[in-house]
Each structure stands twice: as structure tokens, then as C-alpha cells.
Amino acid sequence: MNIGILGAGSWGIALTKLLSGNGHNVTVWSIDKDEIAMLNEHREHLTKLPGVIIGDNVSFTTDVEVACKDKKILVMVVPSPFIRSTAKTIAPHVNKEQIIVNVSKGIEESTLMTLTEVISDEIKDVEVAVLSGPSHAEEVGKGMPTTVVAGAKSRDIAELIQDTFMSDFFRVYTSPDVVGIELGGALKNVIALAAGIADGLGCGDNAKAAIITRGIVEISRLGCALGGQESTFAGLSGIGDLIVTCASKHSRNRNAGYLMGQGKTYKEAMEEVKMVVEGVYSAKAALELSKKMNIEMPIVEMVNKILFEDLSAKEAMTMLLTRMKTSESQDLNWN
Fold first, then answer.
1. Please, are residues 63 and 93 in contact by the beta-carbon 8 Å criterion?
2. Domain residues for 264?
């Protein structure tokens, strides 16, 4: 199959390695001429995914028409703030027979749209699906065991994506819950910032477990209110992705949070991490959605206060712990 990868960062290169290894003809596009020159010369992303060598059967280009033309699947893998502009750029070169698979994670701050909704808003009459789950590029690029979920409105499309991406180390499940998969992937980045902040404060494993557990409660509440299914948030794109993003050394969101817990601003933390920290861009949108749907999300609220209102991490942790007393689950009744 002919596949175009739109975005040549660490995740784009990891998926290029996977898909070319599966026997597909892959073309990788980036707007950055220096990045494409480096990839053509070294067959390796020297800064973002060193050690992962791409075979000669993959081509690299800055020409978006070349990346899109005659491709059955287009994989959208640019950072979330650039999804709309990239979709607008490729729109003239996309036809309704093609499938766009979004693998980026986030919510558009200005519109509160999920990323598949943003793509569909810019490119009419094209099938837009999603692939998500606990899948750090550093491990996928090395062929380490990984499982994800492909979401699409059509079972046939979901199964086509499953067949295309699945390998002996990369297992793909299918689901019709596109909105749930996307919201899980976007909101977990905000919770991962909180987990990193707690690590930076030296709070320990108990606090990390509490943030993960209560974090998935917040994600599920909002996700279900917006049309996602509860089982999705208990799956790979929900609790699975949340665990890996809160705990892994590869997690840019957790690592940025750690630096903020040690007193750095989010801008200083992003400069040190040297990658786009998606949780920073999704935090405001998550808070706005919670207010719109009247959903209580105290962890998301505190992350926003740390990011944008100069609340100290230590004060935020105290405020979370001393909130009004309540029961753990509102669904359980006393006998």
C-alpha cells in the first residue's frame, strides 16, 4: 500500500519504520527543509529518534503534493497546534477515496474540537480515523511490544487500518468510539503534567497512583458527557495511555511537569524538554469543556492554575488534598 506520513518528528519516524517494515511504500513529508535533508542523508532522525535507521525504500519530501498523491492512507502526525494549518495545506491534494489516520493527540483550544473534527472541518468528504494508545515512539521505533486501538466510524475502515499497521510486535485493536479514543489521548496529557509536577515536588508513589486513578475518573466523566463510551476510558486509549504517559521516562508531558514541580515555568520546561508538550495546549481546552458540560475536574483545574495563574505546585497539591470531603464513587449506595 502507498502511505503518506505527514510529520517527521519522533512519532512520524517510528511509524515510518513500522509501516515500511510491514512492506508498505512510505513517503514522509515535513515542512522543515533541514529536517528532510538530514533524513535523506542519514536515514535517521539524529535529534528526535537517534538509533532508528530507515531503509532505502522510504522517500522524504518537502512537497506536500508528492506526499499525498496516489496514497491510500495519509497519517497525520504533526503536533496538535499545527493540525488545522496542515489539513488546510493538504486539502487540495486529498480525494474522497483516501483515508486520513490522525495519530496526534490534543484538543483545539480556540474551537474545543477534537483533532479528527478539525481535520474534517478543513477537508470535506474524506474518511478520518484515529490511532491511539500507550505507544512511545522510542519503543515503537525499536520494535518493542506495543498495543493500540484504531477508531473509525466504519468497521471496514477500522479493520483496514488494523491490517495496515499490525505487526508481530505492534498489536492493533478496533473500535467505533472515535470521540472517546481522541478525548482519552488528549486529556491524559493534562493529567500527566500533574503526575510530573507531583514527582518534581517529591511526593512519592502514593501521590502518583492517586493522580492516575483520580485522573481517569476526571477523563471518563468529561469523555462520557461528550459522547465517549465508558469502556473506552478503561481501555488502551484511556487508562492504558494515561499510565504510560504519567510514569514513563519517555513522556514529554511528565518530564515537563517534573520541571514545573521543581519551580520552572511551563515555557522554561518546554524549552528544556525540546519537544511540543501537548498537555500545555490541551489544558485550557479541557477546563473550558469541563465548565461547558458542568463536570468537576479538580486536577485539570489545578494544572491550569499552575500553568497560567502562577499558583505554586506546592499550593496546588495542598488545595487538592484539602478539598471538601466526599465519597469515592457517586454510583454506590449504602445498604
1. no
2. 179-321
CATH number for the domain harbouring residue 68 = 3.40.50.720
Does residue 326 belong to any structural domain of this protein? no
Q: Outline where 176-310 has alpha helix (H).
A: 178-201, 205-225, 230-233, 241-247, 252-261, 266-273, 278-293, 298-308
pLDDT in tens, 6-17: 999 999 999 999
CB 76 within 8 A of CB 4: no
How far apart are the C-alpha atoms of 189 and 303, rounded to whole Å?
11
Is 188 in the active site? yes
Are the C-beta atoms of residues 183 and 162 closer than 8 Å to each other? no
Report DSSP state, residue 324.
P
d(CA 235, CA 224): 14
Exactly one of 71, 105, 188, 208 is catalytic; which is it?
188
Asked if 95 and 197 touch (Cβ cutoff 8 Å), the reply is no
pLDDT (tens digit, 9 = 90+) per residue, 127-184? 999 999 999 999 999 999 999 999 999 999 999 999 999 999 999 999 999 999 999 9
Q: Is residue 334 part of a domain?
A: no
Query: Helix count (H) and strand count (E) of the chain?
Result: 16, 8
From the list 200, 180, 203, 177, the residue with the least C-alpha distance to 272 is: 200
Nearest to 299 by CA among 207, 196, 214, 202: 214
Count of domains forming the chain: 2
pLDDT-derived band at 276, boundaries 50, 70, 90: confident
Question: Residue written as cell 512519532?
Answer: 11
Where among 136, 156, 176 does a domain terminate? 176
**For residue 324, what pLDDT is reported?**
92
Same structural domain, 24 and 108 = yes
